């Protein structure tokens, strides 16, 4: 398939690196040098600053939208209207209301749209999902998740600190991944409570968010995301009646990715413990792209679709409570 990439920063480049046998034919960015850099992952690639040229190019089959948050919905909608399949980075919009036209169009279109929930494709998460699907941990009771990074010098001046561009702070950034993973295991949440606060960074948006999410059955996800986490970390603990699945690390600065399965014994006491480790490069981007290709070729449902983004953003907006309405 022929690919267009709009937004050629860090994530756009990660997407370009995993296209495999598929052909990158056009790159677009407001910074032509970034577009030129990512074009090196293809041959005879068109380089442009006009995103509509990329999204509507007649030879393109899939458009990858990896821009700042304020452009994600508009570009994806334009691509769908021009009969392209779409991968749009999370959170896919600034708010759930902004996402509604894209959600409607997606339901009417035969073309598929996937949201960049690449965390579902980390091998430890995929293995945890496999064990969960087997029924071995039993009925799930609750999830506890923590995800954080420590920013960098000048972080408060980057686009993520500008709510007009980002839609918010740490909650709409890393928080969307934790919300999505919790929904992936527990389903929809009917009870949403929590708050956001700016403790450290001198910026308008929050640097910490604390959430308590409950399903209609009373299952709970207790989540904390932070960009004042001075040692980058990821930890997701999934508690069933007969065992616990714990994912630690995402590779790189987050530490070696690891899944630990604690299996409760009939006599209780110390559990039977099995550990899987996944050192080396982060292959989640590759696995996610391959699965999207498979969903197109085999006409199967997309894992991490626009409805998943919509439900996650509804939770984000409930926690924000209009905090950034005057900024958008």
User: What is the rounded distance between the termini?
Assistant: 36 Å
Structural class: alpha/beta
Strand content: 25-35%
CATH domain class of the largest domain: Alpha Beta
Helical residues, percent: 25-40%
The major β-sheet equals: 8 strands, mixed
CATH superfamily of the largest domain: Dihydrodipicolinate Reductase, domain 2
* Strand line-up across the major sheet: 8-9-10-7-11-12-13-14
| Number of domain modules | 2
The backbone outline, from C-alpha atoms, is globular
Short description:
This protein is α/β, with parallel strands linked by helices and 328 residues long.
Please, could you describe this protein's structure?
This protein has two domains: 2-116 and 287-304, 3-Layer(aba) Sandwich (Rossmann fold), CATH 3.40.50.720; 119-282, Dihydrodipicolinate Reductase, domain 2 (2-Layer Sandwich), CATH 3.30.360.10. 33% of the residues lie in helices and 26% in strands. It has ten helices and 14 strands. Helix 4 (69-81) runs parallel beside helix 5 and helix 8 packs across helix 10 (306-320). The two termini are 36 Å apart.
Topology record:
Blueprint: E1 2-6, H1 10-16, E2 23-28, H2 32-39, E3 46-48, H3 51-55, E4 62-65, H4 69-81, E5 85-89, H5 96-108, E6 113-116, H6 123-134, E7 140-148, H7 163-166, H8 171-186, E8 191-197, E9 208-214, E10 220-226, E11 233-240, E12 243-248, E13 257-263, E14 272-278, H9 284-297, H10 306-320
Parallel strand pairs: 1-2, 1-4, 2-3, 4-5, 5-6, 7-10
Antiparallel strand pairs: 7-11, 8-9, 9-10, 11-12, 12-13, 13-14
Helix pairs in contact: 4-5, 5-10, 8-10
